[in-house]
Amino acid sequence: MVKYSEVYQELKDKYKDMVKEVAITPNDRTLFPDVDWLIGNHSDELTPWIPVIAARSSYSCRFFVLPCCFFDFVGRHCRRQSGKTQYRGYLDFISEVGSACGFRVEEDCLRIPSTRRVCLLGKSRTYPPAGEVSMDAQRTRYINSRQGQGPAPPPRSTGQPSGHPDSQGPPDAGADGPWLSGFRPRERAERVRNCASLPREFVDAVVLQVAQLLLGGKRLNTGGSRSGTAGTWSRGESLSLAEVAGQLGGEALQRLRRECGGLQTLLRSNRQVFEVLQGRVRIRDWRQETPLQERQPEARRRVSSEAFKTRLCWFFLHHPDGCVLPADRCPFAHGPGELRPPPAARGSRPRR
């Protein structure tokens, strides 16, 4: 699956002669000495590298980044200060990268409908052009310090960075190597790693198997349907994810890891049936969910009401004691006769 928005795809088709799609590994071959700005809009793995690439491309090159996902130079960025939100800590990290690269970093907030709309800009330098050699040595030390251990970045190709106008001669053999070992650019086509890629019958079989484990081996209904009563309805026990995994077949676990990220991902995606908390899973009790829904904001309650009775109730179909809620209070349909058509997708744009 290639992750493109419809707007981007339209622009890409319209200006196909101007758009180039390439994988960028930060090294001396991926510099842009002729550009004025490097812009990273939700650039993920490349976000911390954009100030570095801009600084090494030319003294006049500037950068703009709109951070979203939290990546370090290699791998995920780890939160280090509990007194800050993860987002604030990541913004401070990218600002620190820009400063270490010799930029005066500015922060601004875009007027866009997003919770992550803080952008960082490097429009000017803190050093004169003559200080490029010593500043680049500082950049290299900073980048290497983020790895903690392992080989140092490959040596720079000349006394001046190869992308700068005053660099001379071809880059040396280290120019093709990454500035920090371990960096892997994202593949152009990303595999979907969620339960949507798994056959429905496989997911249903795993859900039934896990539910039977939690209910102490009670036989589940496979075709019948019934409503339960609060006095006899059983929630079963709570098991750790490791205990559940130990009872599933090795082939099923391997398939889950390969296709959707693992057992926990599948259980969380089946929220109607399971509650996963602190590494343990148990059957969800919808009597406890109803008061929580009533305290939700109005907008979320409206969305919930639009989805009311658009899916069949798993408990009505499969739980040995039936559904703990009466039909008029259960958000899911007690039989095909109660099913409503799902609401239209929000924000969908007509295809041309």
UniProtKB/TrEMBL annotation:
The C3H1-type domain is annotated at 307-337
What top-tier enzyme class does this entry carry?
transferase
Q: Where are the zinc fingers (C3H1-type)?
A: 307-337
The cross-references to InterPro entries, in alphabetical order and at most eight, read: tRNA_uracil_MeTrfase, Znf_CCCH
Enzyme Commission identifier(s): 2.1.1.211
An annotated Gene Ontology molecular function? tRNA(Ser) (uridine(44)-2'-O-)-methyltransferase activity
Q: Which keywords fit this entry according to its UniProt record?
A: Cytoplasm, Metal-binding, Methyltransferase, S-adenosyl-L-methionine, Transferase, tRNA processing, Zinc, Zinc-finger
Gene3D superfamilies with a match to the protein in the record: Zinc finger, CCCH-type
Q: Tell me where in or outside the cell this protein is found.
A: Cytoplasm
Q: Which GO terms describe its biological process?
A: tRNA methylation
Reaction(s) catalysed by this chain's protein: uridine(44) in tRNA(Ser) + S-adenosyl-L-methionine = 2'-O-methyluridine(44) in tRNA(Ser) + S-adenosyl-L-homocysteine + H(+)
Output a single Gene Ontology CC term carried by this record.
Answer: cytoplasm
Top-level taxon: Eukaryota
What main location does UniProt list? cytoplasm
Region annotation (Disordered) maps to 145-182
According to its UniProt entry, the function of this protein is described as: Adenosyl-L-methionine (AdoMet)-dependent tRNA (uracil-O(2)-)-methyltransferase.
Which family does the entry's similarity section mention? Belongs to the TRM44 family.
Protein name as catalogued: tRNA (uracil-O(2)-)-methyltransferase
**Native species:** Rousettus aegyptiacus
Q: Provide the organism lineage as a comma list.
A: Eukaryota, Metazoa, Chordata, Craniata, Vertebrata
